[in-house]
Amino acid sequence: MSGITDLDQLLAAMEPSLVDEEFVFCTCNGSLSEYTELDIIGSFKEREGLTLILPLSQARQEDLEYEGVFRMITLNVHSSLEAVGLTAAVSNKLSQRGISANVVAAYYHDHIFVQSTKADEALLALLEFVK
Fold first, then answer.
1. Among candidates 6, 4, 12, which has minimal Cα distance to 131?
2. What is the pTM (predicted TM-score) of this model?
3. Are 18 and 119 a contacting pair, CB within 8 Å?
4. What is the pLDDT of residues 6-61, one digit of tens each?
5. CA distances to 56, 59, 60, 65 from 28, in Å
6. CA 43, CA 15: separation in Å to the nearest integer?
7. End-to-end CA distance of the chain
8. Does domain 7-128 match CATH 3.10.20.30?
9. Could you tell me which Gene3D superfamilies the record lists for this protein (predicted)?
10. Given this model, what pLDDT does residue 95 score?
11. What integer pLDDT is reported at residue 1 of this predicted model?
12. Would you list the domain boundaries of the chain?
């Protein structure tokens, strides 16, 4: 099933939803296989180490270091990985309000991690696209 590539259609159709849980980005040594017992929702291997995105509660439980606490907004539209401009439009909308946008593109949806304290404001800003 192919995702939507047209930017206007993506913006009009997306249904951003805010996840209640708080998340953090941690950097760890080793491989992903060493962390399979954790409820990891995202990972990326970089030269400097392994980045894990996981619930704040788990990071605290495992005594993992992190900076910043985030909430996740899922853009409930099946965007194509080849779509042009969605990340830019979302980032621009949020930057106008001083909100950082850490975007993770998965196969079906884009997920925007925003500062936990600004999550409600971020959701309202993104809903402006669909009005």
1. 12
2. 0.89
3. yes
4. 777 778 778 899 999 999 999 998 899 998 899 999 999 999 999 999 999 999 99
5. 15, 11, 14, 9
6. 24
7. 27
8. no
9. VC0802-like
10. 96
11. 57
12. 7-128
Which residues have CB under 8 Å from 131's CB, separation 6+? Answer: none
Share of the chain above pLDDT 70, in %: 97
88 Cβ contact list (under 8 Å, min separation 6) = none
Amino acid making up residue 115: Q
- Ordered DSSP codes for 56-82: HHHHHHTT---S--EEEEEE-S-B-TT
**Structure tokens belonging to residue 22:** 């708080």
